[in-house]
Amino acid sequence: MDAHRNSQKSKKMKANTLKSLLELDSMYRGRNSEHDGILSLISYCSYTYTFIDPSESPSLHCLKRDKLIKLLSLLKLMRNGTCLPDEVLTPLFSMIQDHLFRRLPPPNTSILPDEDDLIATPAATWPHLQPIYDILLCLVINMEPKTLGEYIKDSFILNLLALFKSDDLRERESLKKLYHQIYSKFHGSRSFIRKAMNDVFLHYTFEADEKHAGIGDLLEICGTIINGFSVLLKEEHRLFLMRVLIPLHRPNGMQAYHRQLAYCVYQFVEKEPVLGVAVVRGILRYWPTTNCHKEIVLIGELEDLVENMETEEYKAIALPLCKRITKCFNSQNSQVAERALYMWNNEQFVKMVLQAEAVEEVLSVVVEGMEENLRGHWSKSVRQLTQNVKEMLVEMEPVLYARQLNQSHSEAETRRKQRWERVEMAAKLNQFIQESLRSGLPD
After folding, report:
1. Which of 53, 121, 191, 369 is the most exposed place for a label (fewest CB within 10 A)?
2. Residues 6 or more apart in contact with residue 391 via CB below 8 angstroms
3. Which pLDDT score, from 0 to 100, does residue 417 have?
4. pTM attached to this predicted model
C-alpha cells in the first residue's frame, strides 16, 4: 500500500517537475528571443551618422530613427526594468554614450537679445538624439538605481552636465528632465550633482571667456532643489547662496538667465528673510557700470526682495540701497531712470525709507538727487516722474522734506564755494609760477 502511494507520489512530483522545467524553458526561450531582438536593434543603432556627410543616405537616417523608436517601445513595455541583464545594458549604455557624449559645435557668438532666451541653434543630429534621450529617461524611470549605478557613475553625470552647453533648446529641455530624474532617484549622488553644478557656475562666473547656453536651465534645476530645502537651512546651502548664486549677478550676459537666478535667490530669502540683507549687498557689489539692460532687471530684483523683508532687516541696507536707486534715477538713460523712479510706487519701499533709523541721511541723498533731476535732466518724462515722487514725499513728510531740501541747498552752496576757492587758489598758484619763471629769465 505504501509502495503504491510512494510510486504515485513519485510520478506526480516527476510530472510537476517536468512541467515546471518546460515552462521555465519556454520563458527562457521567450526572454532570450526578446533580448535578441533588443540586442539586434542596439547593434544596428550603434552606428552614428553626422548628418553633414553628403555620402550618407537620408533613407538610412529615417530607418535608424525607426529602429530607435522601436527599441524605445520595447523598453517601455518592460514595466520592471530589472529584467534587463548586463549583456543588454552594457551595449545599450555604450550606444547611448556614443551618441550623446560628442564634441559640441562652437557656441553661438551672436549678440544676446533683450529677451531672456538665447538664440537657439538646432542640432542636425536631433532626429536621432531625441529617441536616445527618451531611451535613457525610460531606463532611469523604470529601473532600480542599484542596477543602474554600475552605468550611471560620476563620470557619466559629468558628461551629461557638459551637454548643457548645447545651443539647441530641445536638447537642454531633454537634459533637464533627465537630470531631474537622476537627482530624484540617485540619493547617494545628490551631493556630487550639486557640487558639479556649482563648479559649472563658478567657472562661468570667474573663468569662462565664452557664453554658456545652459546656465538658466541648470538654475531651473537648482530652483527645484532649493524648493525642497528645509526652513532651517544648512550652512552648506547658505554658502551656496553667498558664494555661487550672488556672484552669478556679475557676468555681462546675466539677463539671459536672470529670471531663473532671481527665483533661486528669492527661495532662500523666503525661507530665511534675514538673508535678504546679504543678498541686497551682494547685488549692489556687482552693479554694472555701462550695461543699462542689466541695471533695469537688477532694479526689479531689488524691488521684489524689499517686498519680502522686514523693517529691522531693511535698516541695515536702507542707505546703500537708496544711494544706488538715486544714482539710477539720475541716469542719463531714460529707461533706467524711469524704472528707478517707479520704485517709489512700491508702498513697502516708501514705508521702509521713512522708517529707517538714518531717515534724514537717506532722505538727504534722495532729495538732492530729485532736485538734480528737476534742474536739468534731459528727459521730460523723467522730470515729470521726479516731480510726482517729490509731491508724494512732501505730502507724507512735509517738515522733514523741507528741512532736507534746505540742507541740500546749503550743502550745494558750500560745495560751490569750495570749488570756486579751489579754482581761485589754482589761478593764484599758476600766476605765481608764471611770475617766477619770468623773473628767472635773463634780461
Report:
1. 53
2. none
3. 75
4. 0.81
